[in-house]
Amino acid sequence: QVQLVESGGGLVQPGGSLRLSCAASGFTFRNYGMSWYRQAPGKERELVAFISSVTKSTNYPDSVKGRFTISRDNAKNTVYLQMNSLKPEDTAVYYCAAVRLNAWGQGTQVTVSS
Description:
By secondary structure, the chain is mainly beta. It is built from no helices and 11 strands. It is 0% helix and 49% strand. Strands 2, 4, 5, 6, 9, 10 and 11 form a 7-stranded mixed β-sheet that branches. A 4-stranded antiparallel β-sheet has the order 1-3-8-7, with no helix packed on it. It is globular and about 40 Å long.
């Protein structure tokens, strides 16, 4: 079955960095665009990064552009989210998703606090 497993979340100080990973299985990973979403308490889930399947083109909202970088390793069936210059407002549960498959990971908590 389709499975997405995130890792790499944690507590970091403002200005710090984290790298999230998402290991995929149960589908042909290289054929699907992959996304990272986040959801903060009391807020709607929002897209923070997308990477396409073939060209590996990327998209980001203005809130994270220049700070977050999504990448993928099709040989390892893994998608990454490098997060730099983290701010307290980046605190949320982060999910990876293969939206075309309606497949979501369980989420990993990122907390930015001093």
